[in-house]
Amino acid sequence: MRIILLLICFLLLTGCYTVERNCTDFKTGTFEFTYNIDGVEKTGRFVRTEALNVDYFDNKIDSASVRWINDCEFVQKTIHPKNMAEQKAIHFKILSTTEDAYTFEYQLAVKDPYKKARVEKGSAKKIN
Q1: Cα–Cα distance between 79 and 59 in angstroms, integer?
Q2: What is the pLDDT of residue 6?
Q3: What PROSITE patterns does the record tag this protein with (predicted)?
Q4: Contact 53/104 with Cβ under 8 angstroms?
Q5: What is the CB neighbour count within 10 angstroms for residue 110?
Q6: How far is CA 36 from the centre of its chain?
Q7: I need a labelling partner for 69 at 20 to 30 A (CA). Which of 9, 48, 61, 109 fits?
């Protein structure tokens, strides 16, 4: 009986927990993120305005348009795609925020009916 009571209390307390999402703080600015290529961890940087995202990674610069769906979700599409994969828009959703960073997930904005949806997660830190 005691275990059931403790379990109910635990569920009630964890059910009330909400993740902090101050997404408007991360709509614009300069951000850093880490990524892996062939087992090597690297750091990239991007600058985002209300309508544009410029990525600086692996000695390359890439620009994309940004269309905000709401304060925590946006769709990004490469401005000058070099191949078919870059032509596909990507849907980003901010999952949680801290004072200077946020965690997000992303996937293709248009789902391919013949492939399983692949959702990836990442995090970015605001540096300016």
Answers
A1: 18
A2: 63
A3: PROKAR_LIPOPROTEIN
A4: no
A5: 11
A6: 16
A7: 61
* Alpha-carbon dihedral sign for residues 65, 71, 72, 73: negative
Residue for token digits 């990239």? 44
pTM score, whole prediction: 0.78
Do 45 and 59 contact (CB within 8 A), yes or no? no
Residue-wise pLDDT tens digits, 3-18: 776 666 565 666 555 6
CATH of 19-126, one of 3.20.20.10, 3.40.120.10, 2.40.50.180, 2.40.128.490: 2.40.128.490
Q: What is the pLDDT of residues 34-87, one digit of tens each?
A: 877 778 888 889 999 999 999 998 888 999 999 999 999 999 999 988 888 888
